[in-house]
Write a structure and sequence with these properties.
binds uridine-diphosphate-N-acetylglucosamine; globular; single chain; 13 strands; 17% strand; alpha/beta; 344 residues
């Protein structure tokens, strides 16, 4: 049975991926420093799958502690690297923390891969590397644009580090997965996204508004060059996204790569506007949403959605879940955490 190291495995996308790996019959070692997640997530994963992942509370900025994980688990055959800071706004305020955390963690993992002869890594990247794209839908060949934030820049630099490292190390393979906008939660509502404080992202803000925790959702701009004037994104169900990681791991383990650094877009191929998301949420959950249109948010792009042809044909993966089912899962999760915390 393949043993997979999942960094950031108690985080949002990480935890959903751990579930899919366990359900696919793989063994999982989670490494997380719990800086933006809770130990309890491991219980949610175990409750869904009936299998318990290993859990190591380790900060990947510490090289020796990172090596310690590989000493304890000498049979790790591949890594999925999620652990990173990811808030765009915060990265503008604390750039050095973002560069230190996101770059150093990757460097330590790559050093460990060399030292402990681990050959495969899947990297958690973002469509943010394309900036405001010239052509839609966005293919993997679209040019990398100037990063809009230190966060976005760390993703670009990490991809550069991976590409350079793969040139110098023979026999190892990396797949970088560029996510569009992951949303929703596991249908069991036992795991999901746990934003700390006021959410920056659209869907957690919507569910918290519907739950009465936020008074009103601000729609950032209705004067974009889009059919209804609000900005367009490619929203992908987090479970669909998680499954793509299992596919990528299998591709690496079965040595199906065409080169030792590959990139895939993970999206649905369909762009939806902010207003369309609001209406789909209202329709699928029966909740009325209080919202108002305000100024554009600084740094936002107008529209971006994926060309998924390459991931479909080459990876053999496609997003399956529809937007209404996905928004319902986000709402079910929101209600579940509220009832647990007894906050409503
Ligand atoms: C951003 C980042 C992306 C990052 C992701 C996760 C950019 C260009 N992209 O995506 O790299 O991986 O966050 O943190 O910075 N919106 C509202 N009201 C709200 C919140 C959002 O109208 O209260 C709108 C936004 O203006 C945008 C859309 O909803 O048009 C999606 O926003 P969000 O969920 O924050 O994701 P992105 O900005 O697309």
């Amino acid at each position: 049975m393949a043993k997979i190291l999942v960094t950031g495995g108690t985080g949002y996308i990480g935890s959903h991926t751990v579930v899919e790996l366990l359900e696919d019959g793989m063994e999982v070692v989670i490494v997380d420093n719990l800086s933006n997640s809770e130990r309890e997530v491991v219980n949610g994963i175990t409750s869904i799958t009936g299998k318990e992942p290993h859990f190591e509370e380790v900060d990947l900025r510490e090289r020796n502690a990172t090596y310690g994980v590989f000493e304890k688990h000498p049979d790790i055959s591949a890594i999925i690297h999620f652990a990173a800071f990811k808030a765009v706004g915060e990265s503008v305020e604390k750039p050095l923390e973002y560069y230190e955390n996101n770059l150093l963690s990757l460097i330590h993992l790559l050093e460990a891969m060399k030292k402990f002869s681990v050959n495969h890594l899947v990297f958690s990247s973002s469509c943010t590397v394309y900036g405001e794209p010239d052509e839609l839908p966005v293919t993997e060949k679209a040019p990398i644009k100037n990063a809009g934030s230190p966060y976005g820049n760390t993703k670009q630099i990490c991809e550069d580090i991976l590409q350079d490292t793969m040139r110098s190390i023979k026999g190892k393979g990396v797949i970088s997965l560029r996510y569009f906008n992951p949303i929703g939660a596991h249908p069991s509502a036992k795991i999901g996204e746990l934003p700390l404080g006021v959410p920056n992202n659209l869907v957690p803000f919507i569910t918290q508004t519907a739950a009465g925790i936020r008074e009103c959702l601000s729609v950032f701009g209705d004067d974009y060059n889009t059919p209804d004037g609000s900005a367009i994104r490619d929203y992908i169900n987090v479970v669909d996204l998680a499954k793509a990681h299992v596919t990528a791991i299998r591709r690496l383990l079965n040595q199906k790569q065409k080169s030792n650094f590959e990139v895939f877009n993970l999206g649905t191929g369909r762009g939806l506007s902010v207003l369309e998301i609001i209406h789909a949420f209202e329709k699928s959950t029966g909740q009325k949403l209080n919202y108002k249109v305000v100024e554009r948010r600084e740094g936002d792009i107008e529209k971006v959605y994926a060309d998924t042809a390459y991931a479909n044909s080459e990876l053999g993966w496609r997003a399956e879940k529809g937007i209404e089912e996905t928004l319902q899962s986000a709402w079910k999760w929101e209600m579940n955490i509220r009832s647990k915390n007894n906050r409503t």
